[in-house]
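Onboarding guide, step 5: your first structure request.
Type a short instruction followed by the sequence, for example:

Predict the 3D structure of this protein.
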Amino acid sequence: MLNSNSKEQTICRSLAGKIQLGFFDEGERVPSVKEIAEWYRVSYCPAQRALKMLERDGLIKLCRGKATIILKKPYESYLESDVFKRRAAALSDLLKSLDILSPAICLQSLLCSREPLLLTKEQSRPGRSLYRQFERSLHSLGSQTALSLYYDISAFAESALLDILYAKLGKKEAEAFLHAAALEYSDCFEDFTKDSAESIEHRLEHLSEMFREPIEEYLTEIELSPDTKQEAFSWEPTKGRTRYCDIVAIDMICKINHGIYPLGTLLPGGPVLADTYHVSEITIRRTISLLNTLGVVQTINGVGSRVICPGDASIPCRLKELMLDGNLIAFLEALQLLAITGKPVFLNTFPWIPEDALAAIAHAAAIPEEKNSMVAVISAGMQAVVHYCPFAAVRDIYSKLTLLLLKGSILRLEETGAEKVPGWSAVSGELQEGCSEKDGMRMANAYRQLFQMIFTDTRLALIHIGVHGAADVADV
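The system replies with C-alpha cells like these:
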C-alpha cells in the first residue's frame, strides 16, 4: 500500500486493515460504494477508487451487481512481515501516546453518543466487536479530523495490536480479554446515567492500561535486526494537497496587525519561522514570496524581509480558498480535539517542560492585551508540547493541530489584539500560578478550560454566520 495522503488511499488502507482484522470473514459482505462513502464522509468517486485499489492489489474481486468477494488478506502473518518490523519501535511510542489520548477521546465520544452501543454476545470475534464499538462512538463527535486521526493510527498499526494479544496471551485468554473489554466499553456508556464522568474516565484509563501492558511487553521482547530501518508514525489530517503557505501567511499578517512584527522591522529568519510553524523552510520561502506579492513585506537580498504594510480585510478576497467553509470547520475540529485531549497531554508533558518554556507561558499569560495574551498562550503551550512531550506520536499530532489552528487566523484579520476575552482573567491567573508553583495539574486544567472556552465560542460564532457543518461538530 502506498503511503499517500489522498482520501482514496486513506479509505483503501482502512478497508485493507479491516480485511486483515477479519471484519469480513465468515461470509460477511463488504460494504457497497454508497455505504463506504457515507461512513468515511466522502463523495462517491473516492470510495469507488478505494475499492478499485483493493482489487488491483489482489485483495478483493468486484462483481458488478453482486457482492464483493474477499480473495486474501494483505499479510499471511503480519507479525512476521517486514512492515511490522519497520514499525515496531514507533508502535511502542504510539501505544504510550494512545494511553494519554484515547481515554479522553473515548469519554467524549460516549458522552456524545445518542444511541446505545450494539454489543454482540457471541465471542467468536471479540476484537472486531471492540473496534466497531469504538469507531461507531467516534462518529458521534461529528469530526472528520478525529476520524482522520483514527484511520491513520489504524493504518499504521494494521492488525499488530490484536495479533500481539493473541501471540502473547493465547487464543482463549485473548478472546476472553477482548470480550471483557468490549463489555466494559459498552457498560461505560450505559453507566453514564448513574456514574460521574470522572468515574467513567478512570474506568476508561484502566481499560487502556490493561490493553497496553501485554502489547508493550511483547514489543520489548522482540529482537530486531540493527539493519532494519524504522518507520515513524505521521498523521496527515488534511487529505489531499494542502497549501500551508497560505494559512501561515494569514497568521503572519495577523501578527503584523497585532504589532508582534511591527512595521519597518525585519521578519525572523527562515529557520526560526519554520520551527515556529512546524513546516519546512521551503514552505516558509513560499510564504515570504506570497507576502511580497500581497505587498505586505519587501525582501532585500542580504538584508531580509521587511514589513512595509499591514494586512487588511481585502487579503481574503485575493486568497479566496482561505474563505472556504472547510478551512473554518478544520479549525473548529482542531479546537475540539484540543479541548478533549488538552488536559492529559499537558499533564503528561509538564514534567519535561524546561524553566524557560514555562517562563514563556507565564509571560504570555501576563500580556495586558487580552486577545494578544490568549493567542500567545496557545502558541507557547503548543510549542511546549511539540518540543518537549516525551512521546513522538503526541508531538506529531500536536504539531499538525498547530497547523490546523492557523486556518482560523482569518477570523482575526481585523482584530487589534486588545479585545477583551470573557473569562480570560481567571484562566490567565491559573496559568501564571501553575507555572510559578510548578503545578502541572493546575496548568493542565487551565489549558483545558481555555480550549473548551474558545471551542464553544467559535462553534457558536460559526453557526451564527452560517458556516456549513459547524452545528454537526459535537459540543464538549
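Each response can be followed by summary notes, for example: The chain has a mean pLDDT of 85.
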